[in-house]
Structures are given as structure tokens and as C-alpha cells.
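Objective 1.3, modelling of assemblies. Example input:
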Amino acid sequence: MAFFEGTNSTSTSNNAPYLSYIEDHISGAVWRWKWNDNKVVNLTCYCPTCDGQLIYSTSYMYDESSVHFICENCNHNVISKVKGDSIGFAVAATSREIERRVRTKEYKKLNLELSDL
Ligand SMILES: [Zn+2]
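Predicted structure (C-alpha cells):
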């Protein structure tokens, strides 16, 4: 059964290699997520320095066209900026980027680089 990997992947894609891809650095922050079939869910971002979960602001005083991700643990430093005027837009843009990296197989390259460290 395990040899039939491939095209009929609607309900039987539990062994897909990208399912172990659940973390990446995107726009300066660490993003972690879960897979629901082939969709990114529970996408959250963390500080690359202290691993604290980032809070976000859409009304940052200097730039209202981006969502700012801020680490409370690191002097409220702005860790990441994502274009867009709402958290929903920023998260959707990030999940599109994750799905793009999966589609282009870029994530495999990233995983290799990480395991070389
Ligand atoms: Zn931090």
C-alpha cells in the first residue's frame, strides 16, 4: 500500500514529504504551522532570537501599509514586516509563500541547509 504514492492525493496524502516541513524563516521571523491536507493552518510566528511568540500591530506609527510583528521579550523590537493592512492578509501572504516553497521544492533545499549546520 505504501508504494502507491502520488497522484490520487486528496485523502491519502498523509505520507507526503512536505508534511514534515512545519517551520521556516520568512521575512525575518520564524513561522510554524500545521498541515490540514495540503493547506497551511495554525500559522504563528516566533522570534528568531528568544523563540517568544510575536505580537502584531497594524497601526505602527511609521508605516501603515505593513503588519509589524513585535517581540515583547526583546525590547518590543520589530522582528518582521509583512505587506498588507490586516493580520489576515499577512498570514495569508505567508501561507502562500510556504505553499510556493513546497510547490517549487525549495523547502527541501532549506531543510538540507538546516541539517548541515
Ligand atoms: Zn525575542
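DSSP finds two helices and six strands in the chain.
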